[in-house]
Design goal:
- It is a single chain.
- By secondary structure, this protein is α/β, with parallel strands linked by helices.
- The chain has two domains: 161 residues, HUPs (Rossmann fold), CATH 3.40.50.620; 199 residues, Hypothetical protein af1432 (Orthogonal Bundle), CATH 1.10.3210.
- Strands 3-2-1-4-5-6 form a six-stranded parallel β-sheet.
- Helix 18 crosses helix 20 and helix 19 runs antiparallel to helix 20.
């Protein structure tokens, strides 16, 4: 019988956010893990010794549980929360190994954490009981230092260490706490259920961090909705879409927000476009055609024969009429998010790419490569997606919208 492979992602999770969840998903996929345990720390003695206030354990545990709702293979353990005294990873691994001695454990850490693990309590126990999955971000630790650390730990402890390249999405718990304290939006930085919990409990509102990680001047006044209006949008979209499509929309919105921070777009506009991009998907064919024709949007013969191609145009109409979006670039991004178009704007590229690479996607063969490219060069990622999409449709002998072919030809020529 094949032993169960279990990932462990520990942390303060104050609060948990999409970068945590993306890391869990990437590790699960890369190492074929049966499940990943989110492990909120109990007594975070290292942070408290540095004078950092930590939210009470019950709130951090609840937020972790809310983030895992409906996520396949993602579970939350309260083992460290229940344990009295300081939280030590060695003790946690010993307890897990006693409960399930046949399992293979993968302890997920960042590259910066790996460099300090030799100073932890009983490091020999940690390396004996778990394989280490080290998340490598280009901007985190110099390659030479990381490689020297890996070789030293292998030599001294027999450590089994695996690299996991990850996306740098620019989200942190500190950023979220700072934004809440300043009364700013945290939409799509953390799951909607976690956001609602933070607001209902009044967490982080009396704590201003000394750091400010968010660039200024990014909020567009025309669509800067109040927190209450944005929550209303979340609930309304949740009513419109099936659960899996709603979760997909959350993923697209969060990815679009992260891409905007990297590439200099307005993250508030990008997240709104991402959240609303599929609101027309489940209309009947007749309603899609009617909405397009009544609002002056041309419907081609291939679109009439293949209603799936119409949901983007219909979605833009719903975004304007139902959700009150008047920003034409947002509406245009929604209209072309399925096919693309030549000479796309920055926001249009971001939405098109985010729809393809959001964390819930896992079938396309080149996804890891495309995800890396997206945070480096949007046009490079765009061309890869268009090429793979056309290849897939041709192999399936599925109908291809001419606009997709035109878009591919345009960016191939630009390259």
């Amino acid at each position: 019988m094949t032993p169960e492979k279990i990932g462990i992602l520990g942390g303060t999770f104050d609060p948990i956010h999409y970068a945590h969840l993306l890391l869990a998903e990437e590790a699960k996929s890369a190492f074929s893990l049966d499940k990943v345990l989110l492990m909120p720390s109990g007594h975070s003695y290292m942070k408290e010794e540095m004078g950092k206030k930590v939210t009470k354990a019950s709130d951090r545990l609840t937020m972790a549980r809310l983030s895992a709702l409906g996520e396949k293979g993602l579970f939350v353990s309260d083992m460290e929360i229940r344990r009295e005294g300081n939280t030590y990873t060695a003790d946690t691994l010993e307890a897990l190994a006693k409960e399930n001695p046949d399992a293979v454990y993968y302890f997920i850490v960042g590259a910066d954490t790996l460099c300090n693990m030799h100073t932890w309590y009983k490091p020999e126990t940690i390396f004996a009981l778990a394989e280490i999955c080290v998340a490598v971000r280009e901007d985190q630790v110099e390659e030479e230092i990381l490689q020297e650390t890996i070789e030293r730990l292998q030599r001294e402890y027999g450590a089994r260490i695996h690299r996991l390249p990850i996306l740098s999405v620019g989200i942190s718990s500190t950023l979220i706490r700072d934004r809440v304290a300043r009364g700013e939006s945290i939409h799509f930085l953390t799951p909607a259920a976690v956001e609602s919990y933070i607001l209902e409990k009044g967490l982080y509102q009396d704590e201003l961090s000394n750091r400010s990680n968010l660039p200024t001047g990014l909020i567009n006044e025309n669509i800067a909705l109040s927190r209450e209006n944005r929550l209303e949008i979340v609930h309304k979209v949740e009513e419109i879409l099936p659960y899996k499509r709603f979760v997909h929309s959350l993923g697209v919105a969060g990815t679009a927000y992260a891409l905007s921070l990297v590439h200099g777009a307005d993250p508030e506009r990008a997240e709104l476009a991402g959240f609303l991009h599929d609101v027309g998907k489940y209309l009947s064919k007749e309603d899609k055609i009617r909405l397009c024709e009544e609002n002056g949007l041309p419907v081609s013969e291939i679109e009439r024969d293949n209603e799936e191609l119409l949901h983007a145009k219909a979605g833009a109409v719903i975004a304007r009429q139902t959700f009150g979006v008047e920003d034409e670039e947002i509406l245009s991004a929604i209209r072309c998010h399925s096919t693309g178009k030549p000479a796309m704007t920055l926001l249009e590229k971001i939405l098109y790419i985010a729809d393809y690479i959001e964390p819930g996607r896992n079938l396309a063969k080149r996804l890891p490569e495309i995800r890396k490219a997206a945070f480096r060069d949007l046009d490079e990622a765009l061309l890869m997606i268009l090429s793979d999409t056309l290849t897939y449709l041709r192999l399936k002998e599925a109908p291809i919208d001419p606009m997709t072919e035109e878009t591919y030809a345009y960016y191939q020529q630009s390259k």
